[in-house]
Description:
Two copies of one chain form a homodimer.
Chain A: H1 7-29, H2 33-45, E1 49-50, H3 51-58, H4 62-74, E2 78-81, E3 90-93, H5 97-132, H6 138-169, H7 173-176, H8 183-192
Antiparallel strand pairs in A: 1-3, 2-3
Helix pairs in contact in A: 1-2, 3-4, 5-6
Chain A binds a DNA duplex (30 and 30 nucleotides) through α4.
Amino acid sequence: MNKKMSLDDQLEHVKHRVSEQIAENMKSYGYPATIGRVIAAIYYAGRALDLDELAEHTGMSKTRMSQVLREMTSYNIAEKEFVKGSRKDHYTVEEDYYQTFITLFTANWREVTIRNKKIEQKIMEELMEIYEDEEATPEIKAEAENLMEDSKASIRYFEWIERIVELFDSQDIFKYVPKDPLDEDKKAYRFKN
Amino acid sequence: MNKKMSLDDQLEHVKHRVSEQIAENMKSYGYPATIGRVIAAIYYAGRALDLDELAEHTGMSKTRMSQVLREMTSYNIAEKEFVKGSRKDHYTVEEDYYQTFITLFTANWREVTIRNKKIEQKIMEELMEIYEDEEATPEIKAEAENLMEDSKASIRYFEWIERIVELFDSQDIFKYVPKDPLDEDKKAYRFKN
DNA sequence: AAGTTTGTACAATTTAAAGTGTATATCGGA
DNA sequence: TCCGATATACACTTTAAATTGTACAAACTT
């Protein structure tokens, strides 16, 4: 049955597999799979696509395309591109894997740190009130103090996450984990082969 | 209404908030929220808990506890602890935030790299067959070559992810992004205050 | 101004994930 | 060997996320 497939169809099949693979990876990143399909469609088209073309390529509704592209532009992994003589919105995508990884990774974690720092602040205030309440027994005060220590430790942890985010966002990560294997490694590799 | 709450209840309320916060964070990590509630319950109990106690603390079914604890032990963020004279399984959890982050983060990404490298290998084989097919036109061959280049680039990217995972797993990340702010920063901070 | 084209709001549907309850296999003690 | 206690398999229900279709508003054309 596969034998009957034309070579063109086989190439299409490979592209489809890659597309699904990227889609699956998006799920692992914590984002909708459809984002991956959109990236693949635009990449293989080799040009900016409009919503109708994307719906066509992904086999999904135009509504969904609208939703997903909005999400993607909000994360800066897609952007509108002006196309002469067309009223439609055309979209291009970030094609650098590494940058896409960094962008999505940092967007997610920034959200986490912001949310948590807010909550920790509220918790701290709440604990302070309890601690300073005139009816607070020594036991109550001790417990409140424990929880405040926890909260402080938690804040330090989220500040660490913030610095991790900064490490990626600034591209400094490539200093410590380069895209290409080190030259020494390359040499060693060559000798072995 | 809040005014009527006893101080003890207020402390409980704070703990509950923290528990929900951790639960929410687990979702952001890409894991079930319940994992966070389990971590909080055991942490606040200050000792290993059994499935019934966990169901009690989280307000969930024992079945769910069984499922979640299995998942947690598989990720090495929970483990069984022997408790004298009890037939029940008691569980403790990793209490170091940083370690939990690293463990979950690396588990997720390791899975991703393994999955992708497998797929890329298959794709490479498929493309090779197409390329070497006697009926392949120059256009077909050129396209297959392009896709092979893509695949190679993709593999290099996942190897980079693997090295990122290794950076965290080996704890080397703390060399570049220390838990505690640097001494210089500390000093600067002191002077400002 | 009337008629098109386009994108998206909104409610409804589908699909996938989380969680439950009953039934059962396994184990340790009498 | 039987009994009670425990964890989990499995099928079912609930909840949340992804996706669609219809309707409409804004912008563009004539």
